[in-house]
Predict the 3D structure of the following.
Amino acid sequence: MSTNYRNTFIAVAPDCPAAAAEIPPTTAKPTVAALQFALISARPYELTSDDVLFEVHATRAGIADADRDSERERFFAKDQACLRASPLGKRYGWGVHQNQNERVALIGLGTPEYDALSRRDDLVHKAAMRSSRA
């Protein structure tokens, strides 16, 4: 099952505490947010959501390069949460734009680009998932 969207803008969660986009902190053991941020920000519109989610999983699980193809198949044999569940949109103020080729880029809350994408009627609009049920 793919997590990719086409022509979609994922806005930050309604309960996101960030007033503007924040870079996730770096720690001794990189967090999911830090790994996702590093991958997407270094390669805007190059990777799909599937690419990002699997690469983060493979990095954190220590999967060898030689095993990645078979592991990717196994990883996506089960349903995976899409980037709407990412801490980037839930906590750190990053929207995600997925273009017509399903490639992703981060768009910072409070930027003119974020405002423009949030108003485009040619995109599907979704919000990152709330952190709380309230």
Observations:
- The radius of gyration is 15 Å.
